[in-house]
């Protein structure tokens, strides 16, 4: 006599969510590799300026606050998406976008100042590792900004559908991932580099 039981732990989004978690794990491995390269190369200035002399910890601090706020607003957006509250989901994803754009502006200005002063990724191994790590994170933020625009337009027009719910959940997870990686960058590159 066999009985069948419904799978109460499976929902229509679990495969997508699981797949996205796998993507985030591989993305974390990418960052772990770049962090390892930075750890090996951060003192390889070859007589040039060190992290303490070059990096602007104040801008990095403001970037951290802005990205933490973006993490909060993306979390709030996710909560409103799951409640199917279109207006508040759009407001919080809009705030997330604005905060992400502010973050990128600060990063762009910092990169521009470094490169204008003759400190590019070609200068030495330290700067090569620095630009690789922070630049890769910046590309992730740019992708998150683009993805936010692409996903909120259909929500604005059609509301929160089962498909948009799944996609917006992944977007929220990606924003959370980006701010967690930034906490590591801020701690290792800027705080420890300033010592």
In short:
Helix content is 78%, strand content 0%.
SSE diagram, text form:
Elements lengths: L13 H28 L9 H4 L2 H26 L3 H31 L8 H34 L3 H30 L4
Helix pairs in contact: 1-5, 1-6, 3-4, 3-6, 4-5, 5-6
Any overview of this molecule?
It is built from six helices and no strands. It has 195 residues and is mainly α. It has one domain: Cytochrome c oxidase, subunit III, four-helix bundle (Four Helix Bundle (Hemerythrin (Met), subunit A), Up-down Bundle), CATH 1.20.120. Helix 3 (57-82) runs antiparallel to helix 4 (86-116). The model has no long low-confidence stretch (mean pLDDT 91).
What distance separates the N and C termini? 69 Å
The largest pleated sheet is described as: none
Radius of gyration: 20 Å
**What is the average of the pLDDT values?**
91
Structural class by SSE content: mainly alpha
> Which series of helices and strands comes N to C?
HHHHHH
Based on the coordinates given, report the CATH architecture: Up-down Bundle
Number of discrete domains = 1
Low-confidence stretches: none
Task: Find the CATH topology.
Answer: Four Helix Bundle (Hemerythrin (Met), subunit A)
CATH homology superfamily = Cytochrome c oxidase, subunit III, four-helix bundle
Helicity, as a percent range: over 70%
Secondary structure: number of strands: 0
Q: CATH class, anyone?
A: Mainly Alpha
Shape: elongated
Oligomer: single chain
Number of helices: 6
